[in-house]
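INFO batch 0412 | record 1 of 1 | parsing
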Amino acid sequence: MTLDVYRGDLLARAATFTALHDDELRRRA
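INFO prediction complete | emitting tokens
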């Protein structure tokens, strides 16, 4: 696994986590 693929995977996970977190905040507001 190259570093670029690894970095892309981390970015994808971070984006998914952020989207879920934003959704959670919107639900509470």
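INFO post-check: The chain is about 90% helix and 0% strand.
INFO record closed
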